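Weekly modeling sync, notes
Attendees: S.R. (lead), two postdocs, one rotation student

Agenda item 3: backlog of single-chain predictions. S.R. asked that every request posted to the team notebook include the full sequence so nobody has to chase files. The rotation student volunteered to paste the first one in as an example of the format we agreed on. Action items at the bottom.

Example entry:
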Amino acid sequence: MQHYVLFWLKPQLNQEEIATFANFFESLKRIPYLKSLHYGLAANTPVRTVTDNSFTYALTITFASIEDHNTYQEDPVHLEAVEKFSKYWYRVVVHDSLIS
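Predicted structure, as returned to the notebook:
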């Protein structure tokens, strides 16, 4: 199971605050049942009609199962991180998919 999340951070944040937001992702790494976790800033790739680089950060988490994903949604570490860092974003979009 792939959990892909896009974050649009508030435009008034300075570069230090944007960098500090990465601690959100780092705190999630403590959750033991994540198979993998990767995150990064939007890439400055060429403009194309199919490309959307309007987000600030992207997060990709791989889970072994939908059950692990569902447990993650209620995990205290996840909920604490959302509570602590949600002040930084104004929009979040989630794409979940089954992968092989």
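Discussion: group reviewed the output briefly. Residues 1 and 98 are 5 Å apart (CA to CA).
Action items: rotation student to repeat for the remaining queue; S.R. to check formatting next week.
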